[in-house]
Amino acid sequence: MTERISVAIVGAGIGGLAAAALLRQAGIDVRVYEQAPRFARVGAGIQMAPNACKVLRRIGAEDRLRAHALVPESSLNRDYDTGAVTNEFPIAGHVEARYGAPFLCLHRGDLHAALESAVPAEDISLGKKLEALSQDGRGVTLSFADGTQASADIVVGADGVHSRVREIILGPEQPVFTGRIAYRATFPAERLGEHRIERSRIKWWGKDRHIVMYYTTEAADEVYFTTSVPDDGKWATSESWSTKGDLGELRAAFAEFHPQVRAVLDACPEVYKWALLARDPLPRWTEGRVALLGDACHPMPPYMAQGASAALEDAAILARCVVEATPSTAAAALRRYADTRLPRTSKLQLSAKANNWMRNDTNPDWVYGYDAWTEPLAAVR
């Protein structure tokens, strides 16, 4: 009988939980280690394009999310001041027929909860801040800040943009401030009063800034927006999701935008902001029995709404590459995973950086049509 491998995943975000769920389905022993003491419902919306929904379907989360997520009418792109439509790509009644999976707008917390439910609670250890990794021919040892240790045949670093795993295997890196900050908020749609927005994913394109807004539920009872605006660099965070922003500054930044945009911002009760930092595509994602996944290896600006989708794709490709691996072939399986994913994610990173996705007539097939379950895997090396 083939010896099965064990996998330790560092980070219980979207990519880490998806990888854990898919590896468990393949019969692989998986443990997830998360540094946070508890899960928090971050106030943010998220878009799940068809390429992501195909992974969620295999996990068993798609139906749960479809039950209350919004299927937007379209991807609606408008000039910031006149509201003139620069591009409208139909979604409802079109995307699923074209790509075999839906396009969903939902609350990030609902997505995380659905993925968490796919992994037994006993397989997730909270309050585990990784300090060190060491590996040899027999496996990898993880050392945590609380003095405990764990071991596995493979370690997957799914620990986000400030990945400790990446720092250990590739060395410290200093991201560059892009000169831009983002604001975001979710709030009850009833606060909009008569200024309801369309049931579309709407992006308002300004000269040097933009704002994206949509409902996060089929009932259209919660609205979300996120922005990108220039900043002089005097203010910056470490990409925190929990730093409060100033509503006055936000509204002033969009004072020249269309009345619909101003009405949404006027209705907003509180807002969060964070600095947008840039990173170039990494030359490699693996070191022996250790590999990176999601934002730990390919963080990208949120301008294509593909960051989480790419992490889900990673999880699927990782599962396909690792399913037949043994302790002796673990490193080769991880190289195959990285070789398969690097060209795709590098292209996504660079395309997102350009920030022109869907602004004008766009064929999104290369993004939405990707299927992680049928994508050819790289050669084993």
Identify the strand order in the major beta sheet. Answer: 5-4-13-14-15-12-16
The CA-CA distance between the termini, in Å, is: 24 Å
Question: Which descriptor suits the 3D outline?
Answer: globular
Radius of gyration, taken over Cα atoms and rounded to an integer in Å: 21 Å
Largest sheet: 7 strands, mixed
Total count of helical runs of at least 4 residues: 11
| Helix percentage range | 25-40%
Decide which structural class fits the backbone. Answer: alpha/beta
What does this structure look like?
Strand 13 and strand 14 form a beta hairpin. The protein is built from eleven helices and 18 strands. The protein is globular, with a radius of gyration of 21 Å. It has helices spanning 14-25, 50-59, 62-66, 95-99, 108-116, 164-170, 247-253, 259-267, 307-322, 330-354, 365-368; strands spanning 6-10, 29-33, 45-48, 74-79, 85-90, 104-107, 124-125, 130-136, 139-144, 149-152, 154-157, 176-188, 201-205, 210-215, 222-230, 272-278, 286-287, 290-292. Helix 1 crosses helix 2.
